[in-house]
Amino acid sequence: MPETLNDFITTGVFAFILTFVRIGSAVTIMPGVGDTFTPSNIRLFIALGLSLVLTPAVTPMLPNPIPTTSVLFVLITMEFIIGLFIGTIARILIAALDTAGMVISMASGLGNAQLFNPGFGAQGSLVGAFLSVTGVVILFATNMHHLLFWGLMGSYELFPVGSIPDAGSMAELMTQAIASAFKIGVQISAPFLVVGMLLYIGMGVLTRLMPQVQIFLLAMPLQIVLSLITLSLTVSAIFLFWISKFEEGMLFFLGGGG
User: Is the torsion defined by CA of 92, 96, 101, 107 positive or negative?
Assistant: First the structure.
């Protein structure tokens, strides 16, 4: 009985450590939970809680018997890399909102107005900060953060423990995620690009018809007002479109690549 208990404790600690390394590294940079405005102790508690819950489900997927110390360090390193990779993919998907905000700000004449973006912990555009913070709120309001946690569990089918991940495939997936985020950002900002282009065309025609008009004094206020009106009309569609794309991206891990 003592030997059985000792084996159980040893195996349980081994399983918990490997589970915590992957989940903890992913939670650290995951959107919403891993944002800079989330206290570090809250992130740690969430990572510990998820690891405790998922350890029994992950244990059958772990190598048996327990490997030697050198192999164990390699496993921990691989789990850490995989966790960072999953968290980074989720972070890239929400970065589409910041990209859209930057393009919208440039199209609306607010490109030089910078504001601290708490979602990324750096300076960003006004619209980008608004979209990023609101995107996190919608992420929790729609329970999409559950999909992030399910994605962590599904990652064990996509990246089994003990197998060395294909660096080429990971780089390709990362490239596709960045390209997709940029594409989504441009698609979100498309109405503002159209409004800005029509405004510039109209101002160009007005300049030809009335050369004495100080066109630059009229263009900037009108551009900002039209952009704010466009934002108020399209903000709901922006987040509905983005949350659907975010769900598609995270379902990749749920389906084990399918």
Answer: positive
The 10s digit of each residue's pLDDT in 153-210 is 777 777 777 777 777 778 888 888 888 888 888 889 888 888 888 888 888 887 777 7
Q: For residue 129, give both structure tokens.
A: 């900060």
Round to whole Å and give the CA distance between 78 and 70: 13
- E strand residue ranges, the chain: 114-117, 122-125
Look-up: residue for tokens 């919608």? 138
Q: Which residues contact 45 (CB under 8 A, 6 or more apart)?
A: none
Share of residues in the chain with pLDDT > 70 (%): 86
DSSP type of residue 60: G
Task: Answer whether the bond into residue 65 is a cis peptide, omega within 30°.
Answer: yes
Please report the pLDDT score of residue 7 as a whole number: 62
What span, in angstroms and rounded, lies between the C-alpha atoms of 137 and 31?
11
Residues 6+ apart with CB under 8 A from 189: 100, 103, 104, 107
